[in-house]
Amino acid sequence: MSVLSNEQKLQIQQSREASASTRRIVSSGLEEILYEAMPVLDHGFVRVIDYMGDDAAVVQAARVSYGRGTRQVSEDRGLINYLLRHWHTTPFEMAEIKLHVKMPIFVARQWIRHRMANVNEYSARYSILDREFYIPAPEQLAAQSVQNRQGRGNVVGPVEAERILELLKEDSQRSYDHYLDMLNHDETGKPIDENRQGLARELARMNLSLNFYTQWYWKTDLHNLMNFLRLRADTHAQYEIRVYADVILDVLKRWVPLTYEAFREHRLDAATFSGEGVKALRRMLSGEKVEHSDTAMSKREWDEFMSILAKR
Amino acid sequence: MSVLSNEQKLQIQQSREASASTRRIVSSGLEEILYEAMPVLDHGFVRVIDYMGDDAAVVQAARVSYGRGTRQVSEDRGLINYLLRHWHTTPFEMAEIKLHVKMPIFVARQWIRHRMANVNEYSARYSILDREFYIPAPEQLAAQSVQNRQGRGNVVGPVEAERILELLKEDSQRSYDHYLDMLNHDETGKPIDENRQGLARELARMNLSLNFYTQWYWKTDLHNLMNFLRLRADTHAQYEIRVYADVILDVLKRWVPLTYEAFREHRLDAATFSGEGVKALRRMLSGEKVEHSDTAMSKREWDEFMSILAKR
Amino acid sequence: MSVLSNEQKLQIQQSREASASTRRIVSSGLEEILYEAMPVLDHGFVRVIDYMGDDAAVVQAARVSYGRGTRQVSEDRGLINYLLRHWHTTPFEMAEIKLHVKMPIFVARQWIRHRMANVNEYSARYSILDREFYIPAPEQLAAQSVQNRQGRGNVVGPVEAERILELLKEDSQRSYDHYLDMLNHDETGKPIDENRQGLARELARMNLSLNFYTQWYWKTDLHNLMNFLRLRADTHAQYEIRVYADVILDVLKRWVPLTYEAFREHRLDAATFSGEGVKALRRMLSGEKVEHSDTAMSKREWDEFMSILAKR
Amino acid sequence: MSVLSNEQKLQIQQSREASASTRRIVSSGLEEILYEAMPVLDHGFVRVIDYMGDDAAVVQAARVSYGRGTRQVSEDRGLINYLLRHWHTTPFEMAEIKLHVKMPIFVARQWIRHRMANVNEYSARYSILDREFYIPAPEQLAAQSVQNRQGRGNVVGPVEAERILELLKEDSQRSYDHYLDMLNHDETGKPIDENRQGLARELARMNLSLNFYTQWYWKTDLHNLMNFLRLRADTHAQYEIRVYADVILDVLKRWVPLTYEAFREHRLDAATFSGEGVKALRRMLSGEKVEHSDTAMSKREWDEFMSILAKR
User: Fold this and answer.
1) D205 among the known binding-site residues?
2) Which of D171, D178, D203 is facing C207, going by the closest CB pair?
3) pLDDT 10s digit of each residue in chain D, 312 long?
4) What is the spatial distance between Cα A17 and Cα D304, in angstroms, rounded to a whole number?
5) Which of C149, C152, C232, C300 is catalytic?
6) Cβ contact (<8 Å) for B207 and A202?
7) Residue D114 known to bind ligand
8) Are the C-beta atoms of residues C241 and C107 closer than 8 Å to each other?
9) Count of alpha carbons within 13 Å of B263, Cβ hemisphere only?
10) B136: chain A residues, CB-CB within 8 Å
């Protein structure tokens, strides 16, 4: 299953081969992978198209510097940790990244809710979409969660899985066939019937289902990228967007290794305890045995609290 | 074709019957229609849920006033016209409106691009969508425009229209049938088969097509509402979002009649001429006969220029 | 020391006396104090000018409801707690508040950094500012902190305090005298010298110092208001902005009591521990004695960590 | 009068001398001037610190391209003109620029109102400001405008100018002397008196006047940069911010020559006529003689209308 056409591969290769001299901050970690398509799901990808700055840009801005702004790595690391821990967010807004992303429409619909970003999407009013739709791997076909109204539970059995995949595939193929039919447009781009006019693209697209792929250029700053990752690389996020967040986490690591480290430590691996949680903690540390009924937490909050303390 | 269930009608009626006293600015024009569903397309609507301020809030803020801030209507009108004409946008940000909107997903996807708004969408991860999808009226089934890659041309013939509507309806019905099937959920909300688990809602939804209806609460300020209307009540906007904009234009007129008037005059009915356009105008006014070849405008810009001057 | 002129008091009183009927959600807690000036610092205030929604608007939006959306108070409280704890921020964006604030310019300069708000400031290009400047109370005259490069330490001695206050007062008075002089404008608004033209207001204002008072209309949604309060009602915030945040915290309590409660519990009284912090906690809870040297925390982070656990 | 210290000059020189290879789009026009301080007013400057993309990034995003996205210059120019003319703003959000700006505080206060930007300002809570304040050139000392409540009229006479400049200089010097005094900090950075503590920096700064210089890192995208320039390079903008906008206009020309051209043509040199204005135009073009009294325009709007048509 190939994500890219030969022409697309050639365009990417040509972009990668071009090179020029710059006085700007250069991230060697990102230069290595620039323009390359990192595959996600069955037809999707993430490509880094451009970036501005790296860890150095964060400390340079924090110091409102006339020069490079960086000092010893240990000093820069300390500053970045301090800024992140104390929610000094503006220096992280001083680095920027631009991605080309291809993803199913229902993923794009979640993604777009992060408003602090610039987006230019491929227009299905203007162009014809490809026959590309997302079909989950069987191990991703989970039942509705019983505990969580908004999540997945156990994987469905193999018979049910097969039936579901069959329905998804057939409906997707048919809706695309009919999309082309309405457009009066065959697979090679020619009219099916010279005497028909073909429906306007902006109308025909409504027959496509939400698993069809769309693509866009997406640009955001490092602060807002971390907000996105904090929510979308989380276990509560839907699997199909989480896999994109995971790929972008790797991009983050290459781009801004010090910020990535601080982000892991102070956001991803961090835990927030409510006022009641902190009180319970203090009592526990003083040797008291604390039960749920000794606190004012809801059952759900108590369970979350205890699971954080138990994890290893 | 009924847009609302009886229960929904009752809830709306109850909301409309409640009433309380307030010291705030009250817009009598909006109070009249508050909570009512104004139908759009075949299953959609716009409902005004809440608002803050009206024309008076604009002038009050412009004057950073300790009191109501309003004076004579003629003075307020003059101020509002001046503010709008000179792009003093911040006073218009001081009035706010909240709408409940139901619209096809492909319309929602255009709408959400207006980032300066607050949105809370009905979640298909959490809930099950209704069997409601948009089927265009036959007179809306237009062919792809020949001049404009992003628009509609002539209406397609009746035979083709019938065929297209048939495809749209069948595919929509089938995709919804299969959606329920995957969920293991019959039309009354019961499991189809007690032994099947049913696919997670966040997955099953991907089988629905872009003409299915979604709904959200959408809140924005008067300045950004006018930006939305300027772009979406425009003839270049897709018909299916324009009809929503047209309904909201009427809401605007009820809510802020002075601002509405100024908006019509200085935005909707206004025309912008480029530097070259202004030069051509001056030559024409001095009696010169100006042709396209006498200017540096592109053919397309020239045609747009001439059509503005010719309109009546 | 009176904050308001008699004319301003009259305007406020007239606004408070007007009353009308509305179908909208009404917050009785806010109606009581609507338009009233709550004094802050020596010449400043906060006034609530308008609002949209209250706790009910949050749950109504979260449920994308056709009616009021509220249920039992206990159910609404549970939902609001859940939303806040899990960073579901969009329902909180559905309530809005508008304040009239008067504050020293250096406070306004910190405040404006919260970009997700609408602001209309009194223009010193257009109008003449009053002779109103902030002089700290002697007990607020603190020395530079030794630990914290960005904060206050001990209160300065009475002799030094007197000297400082003298300098501040004299310089403020003189800069205002010269401001009027440049404008050729006496205290009653008449020209000082009929033969002089008077400097443009947009220029003369530059002679005023940063403790002069400015004022604006400021409007934001409940989510962003809580962001503002989390940062500005914090002990790390400068005292002169914190007193405004404290007054607004009281407004929050009146306006949205359930959200206020959840905000206290899950933001103000909550504590976030880093990955290393959580690991240390687990070891401590299992009975181990943990020292700073047993962890990878910086000394500063360790001190913050221990002080949270010690507080009572 | 030197804007930069020798150490600052050295830091800039070192930044300029460093160079590395990149696969990204490189703007040769910006590389030439990267990091250099372009002087503005008596102590201010604009420095380009970093950028992402150029004209090519606009067309690349508009085409959601896999490669460079650019074609013939004439095709790219046509596309950029089309996008700008029709308010397709998202492709212009795909290029980004970061500036280091030093400006008087009253200029910073206008500048910050452009919210769609990232800002990190030099902190006077944390650091001590330099003895640098803006004193207008005598030819900039204009009287209050008679027509326009928010603007300048004629230059004041030489005697009055001298008096005003004297006041400004003396007050600025004195307020800085007292600032240092309160801080217990002499010009070389040593304590004035070992027995005094020195006031906290966050308090002492309030004695400085609005003509003192501050500085920040400011980052925005090309679309929002053009919004800034449209308002601030305009004749209605205050001179002291307009000179910054003028320098940035030159930066724009170097960076994105095609966009600059289109921006001049369709924004700076363009004119917008209201509905009434367009009607009057049509009558004039058909040979009719139109007076103000024949239209529904206000006197002020009519004057603006006629002055556009008269300009050459």
Assistant:
1) yes
2) D171
3) 468 999 999 999 999 999 999 999 999 999 999 999 999 999 999 999 999 999 999 999 999 999 888 888 999 999 999 999 999 999 999 999 999 999 999 999 999 999 999 999 999 999 999 999 999 999 999 998 877 777 888 999 999 999 999 999 999 999 999 999 999 999 888 999 998 889 999 999 999 999 999 999 999 999 999 999 999 999 999 999 999 999 999 999 999 999 999 999 999 999 999 999 999 999 999 999 999 999 999 999 999 999 999 976
4) 54
5) C232
6) no
7) yes
8) yes
9) 24
10) 203
CA distance A181 to A183: 5
Distance of residue D184 Cα from the nearest chain A Cα, in angstroms: 24
Catalytic residue numbers of A, as ranges: 232
User: What H or E segment, with its residue span, contains residue D278?
Assistant: helix D275-285
Is the Cα dihedral C24, C27, C33, C37 positive or negative? Answer: negative
CB distance D206–C205 less than 8 Å?
no
- With CA atoms as reference, report the closest residue to D161 among D143, D135, D145, D138: D138
Q: What's the Cα-to-Cα distance from C101 to each of B61, B217, C12, rounded to whole Å?
A: 12, 29, 14
**C172, C134 Cβ separation under 8 angstroms:** no
- Residues B237 and B152: beta-carbon distance below 8 Å: no
Q: How far apart are CA A56 and CA A61, in angstroms?
A: 9
Instruction: Report how far residue B61's alpha carbon sits from residue B90's, in angstroms, rounded to the nearest whole number.
Output: 9
**d(C-alpha D220, C-alpha A203), whole Å:** 36
Q: Is D51 annotated as a binding residue?
A: no
Residue in D with minimal Cα distance to A117: D93
E strand or H helix at B211: none
Q: Whose structure tokens read 């806010």?
A: C30
d(CA C106, CA A207): 57
Residues A223, A229, A233: CA angle, nearest 5 degrees: 165
C-alpha span between A4 and A307 (Å, rounded): 43
For D177, the closest chain C residue by CA position comes to C167
Contact B197/A144, CB-based, under 8 Å?
Answer: yes
Cα–Cα distance for residue pair D194/A128, rounded to 1 Å: 77
Give the three-class secondary structure for A70: coil
Q: In the beta sheet, which residues pair with residue D101?
A: D46, D216
Subunit partners of chain C (3 or more CB pairs within 8 A)? A, B, D
D73 CB neighbour count, 10 Å cutoff: 11
Q: Does the beta-carbon distance from C15 to B23 stay under 8 Å?
A: yes
Q: Is A99 helix (H, G, I), strand (E, B) or coil?
A: strand
Q: Where along chain C do its domains lie?
A: 1-129+213-270, 135-210, 275-310
DSSP designation for C89: -
Helix axes C299-310, C275-285, angle to 10 degrees: 50
Other residues' Cβ atoms within 10 Å of the Cβ of residue C4: 17
DSSP string, C241-278: HHHHHHHHHHHHHHH-HHHHHHHIIIIIS-EEE-HHHH
Residue that the structure tokens 């809930």 belong to: B127
Tally of helices (H runs) and strands (E runs) in chain D: 12, 9
Q: Domain C1-129+213-270 is in which class?
A: alpha beta
Non-local (6+) Cβ contacts of D151 within 8 A are C125, C200, C202, D145, D236
CB B268 within 8 A of CB B230: yes
Give the distance from CA A22 to its chain's centroid.
Answer: 30
C44: helix, coil or strand?
A: strand
At the top level of CATH, the class of D1-127+213-270 is: alpha beta
Q: Which fold has domain B1-131+213-270?
A: Gyrase A; domain 2 (3.30.1360)
- CA of A222 to nearest chain C CA: how many angstroms apart? 17
Q: Quick check: A213 and A104 in contact, CB under 8 A?
A: yes
CATH T-level assignment (fold) for domain A6-134+213-268? Gyrase A; domain 2 (3.30.1360)
